[in-house]
Amino acid sequence: MQMAGVSGVCVHGIPDARWGEAVKAVVEVRAAGTHTAQAVTDFVGSKIARFKRPHVVVFTDALPRNAEGAVDREAVKSKWERARREGVQRAARHVPAGGAGLRGQGGRPHVEEWEQAGQIPRSIWPRMGELGFLGVEYDEKYGGAGADFLTSAVLHEEMARSRSGSLAMAVGVQNDMASPHLYWTGSEALKEKYLPGVCRGPVPLRHRGDRAGGGSDVAAIKTRAVRDGDHYVLNGSKMFITNGAMADLYFVAARLPTSQSDKRHHGISMFLVERPTPGFTVSRKLDKMGMRASDTAELAFEDMRVPAENLLGQEGGGFYEVMRIFQRERLVAGLHATAGASAPSRTPSPMSRGATPSTGRCPRSRWCGTSWPSWPPSSRPAAGSPMPRASSTRTRRTRCARSPW
Hints:
four-stranded mixed beta sheet, 8 helices, Butyryl-CoA Dehydrogenase, subunit A, domain 2, alpha+beta, Butyryl-Coa Dehydrogenase, subunit A, domain 1, GMP Synthetase, Chain A, domain 3, 3 domains
């Protein structure tokens, strides 16, 4: 099977929100502009099964090849992955917030304002939606970007590098801790009703309130639900709820009566709750030591009636859905931690700026308590050499990992 004017083809799989994986074809052509993606798709479709036709076609004037002259498929794949990652990074670093970016000159000045105010401005969310950063992995028919977890990972890394842990947490809750309950287990009617707003951002900060009193022990949930005709009646409370004060939609876990009382994970169900629902109250907003812009609240439910169609997934199957999303939560938390930890290394330290204090604490770290002695410049030890003992009453010393001595 040879198409005129084509000198080489590399076919590989790419992530696809609907099918899991789709076919991408990178086509090497002899003369640019002589073919179209549709022409290539039609040609291939006439020769092989329709499901094998490429979903994405791109053209190049030279495919990478190995020493034997064969197309280097791994090089093509890695180039595509690198380009996609860099594209998401460039966009995420310039998300405007009230007319300014989140990083560089625009982002960091706002971080302190947000922390003092105790909340992130609601204007963040519509702009995030415009750029496709909400509902990253959701189907395009709901307004999502139709991407994969790698794209989400890059986004979370850049949010953490914005130096605002509150922002990173808020976006993480929005994309990977709350709305997946709706996308994965909600009925088609619920998804059509709520997901477009989730992805566009006018409905800010969805929240997943699935833990009550037991922390990460999902089976310890105490909020109760009872079926009453075409509604469920919920009673209970939730503490330490991230994004709880500003959210418009809540994903609430509650326990239904079950005959198997000895199995704590049985009977737990997930419900979608709108903020104006009678019986729902934000009891108080908690004041924290850090990450104050990511608001945390206590919620209360008193005879709150939730329509039966707002049940997410199977009745009594909520425990397994919560645990499934916990896996994403842990991954996102790890991305935040590693990316956030790498961000300070980009800031020049006093030593790298030429400052050479003669005594006091290690100049490489503001938190390091390791003392270092006063040496004349001519006798200062070389980087990497053991740190000599200073004149001090302390005889035992630990070497600072960030100091050249």
